Amino acid sequence: MSDIIRLSAADLAAHLRAGEVSAVEATRAHLERIAAVDTDVHAFLHVNEHAERYAADIDQRRAAGEELPELAGVPLAVKDVLVTTDMPSTSGSKILEGYMSPYDATVVARARAAGLIAIGKTNMDEFAMGSSTEHSAYGPTHNPWDLDRIPGGSGGGSAAAVAAFEAPLALGSDTGGSIRQPAHVTGTVGMKPTYGAVSRYGAIALASSLDQVGPVTRTVLDSALLQDIIGGHDANDATSLAEQWPSFAAAAREGARGEVLKGLKIGVITELPDSGFQPGVAESFRSALATMEAQGAEIVEISAPHFEYGVAAYYLILPAEASSNLAKFDSVRFGLRVTPDGGATVEDVMAATREAGFGEEVKRRIILGTYALSAGYYDAYYGSAQKVRTLIQRDFDNAFEKVDVIATPAAPTTAFKLGERIGDPLQMYLNDVTTIPANLAGVPGITLPSGLASDDGLPVGIQFLAPAREDARLYRVGAALETLLVDQWGGPLLERAPRLPGEITHVGEAR
Amino acid sequence: MSEITPELVRHLGVLARIQLSDEEVERLTGQLGAIVDNIAKVSEVATPDVPATSHPIPLANVFRPDEPQQPLSVAEVLQNAPDSDDDRFRVTAILGEEQ
After folding, report:
1. What's B12's domain CATH number?
2. ipTM of the complex as predicted
3. A75: number of CA atoms within 13 Å, CB side?
4. How close does chain A come to B3, measured CA to CA in Å?
5. Which residues of chain A have pLDDT under 70?
6. Structural domain tally of chain B?
7. Residue B88 falls inside a structural domain
8. How does pLDDT run across B68-81, given as a tens digit for each residue?
9. Which of B4, B56, B72 sits opposite A442 (nearest CB)?
């Protein structure tokens, strides 16, 4: 058997069903991998001490002849923004250090019911505010392709965990690109479903009109399999869509055959010219488009004139909603409490607690959001940002009258160096230009690897966007391109990632 | 051209219940000034004829079935409390001397 940890979730599940690998062996292999490499990568904030017991239970049930769900026994990493009953949930913040939720997030409960083994909680920018995980209160995650570089954010931990073969599947959350941009910089796959397609019950809220939970994996099919498990209506989330969704795994499997590309109209956005991207990123993007064109796809220029206002609108709406959502961290019912010396009122305690418990970026955005919502500024800032949201939705509506999907490079540059942009928040925000419009409009988006940049050898992702509720289309198109590219490369892109320092080299194996 | 002043940042800190240090006020004043100058451009295209969107996929009258469920126990509710007494959360004085 080839290395268990390098199998896709779909392949590992097939071995589990065939009885060639037990769930305990699969879980143990990943826990050993975490022990070997995570000192350097730091993808995990917590490793689940119960994981082997859960796996043993799956093995027992399988041995007893029980018909188990398709992915039963496959390990899953969970972004720390999702609450779990068996592991602490901190959302990357000191203010929630040690917090133990009395309930599981719906997506976690559904994953457990499907037999997935929750092996740990992954690192993230504090309250999902950031593009690099450098804003985690527990230290940054390192990109497995180059440990001096960022793994993206806010879900850098989940992306790095799957890229470093510490888990085949992970859960993420995407408010402005936090699933898709980490996928871009780590050579992995990340899907932001349609707003409302996956429950947010138990996801610690950042910006409620933007947040969406979704899969983080190494293959398009694995993301589809995971969305099949976690998606669908949830009465505990009032924004959850009631519709019946098709099988996304079936869509991905169908897409892999490639017929979807014949006559597929792919929109590229005039207002996102190649000159706005690192040359190696633009080149990889164009090369992926050419590959699809060669199979019968048609590239159509479309205009989205209001996308350039997307970042500005986002950095008004997000801080406004975040300042409101984070008001609950007030030292009364849960989380940190800091009592100042002398006779303090509860308000003094709140102010001292929030000063000590929130990191710099969180304070920055709360203050910005408080400003945007304050009397006299509301119409000029928050009100205008909501109008931009309408204009961006109209840009999408007009575009999708002409094309089936929109394609963009997933981010302007490849992974930058840790520390490089931390001192300039505005520059960090402008990095989200390609991913933000999907959140503002609620449409689904997927990022998958398009190759390595010729100028620095680091991974590049291509992003596809589809109309709201057309998640299946993204799995079809994504799987079609993935199949062609993996064939061109002669194997998955991640096979070209350098060895990690903690990796055990087997005797006789070439380094 | 930004109107973000140290006094405004200090006031926002009070509204947001964050006890900002002088050094933080100074740093935030500069950073927020640059950010606000950039994001103010939303008003360029937000003309009166454009309706506002608060929610990407609006739903109306969302109800779940009115079925009794098991609520959290008091112990579960209090398990993360910084301080509690009996079945209640405990906090310091609500009012200060001047109030």
Report:
1. 1.10.20
2. 0.95
3. 35
4. 11
5. 1-2, 343, 504-511
6. 1
7. no
8. 989 999 999 999 99
9. B56
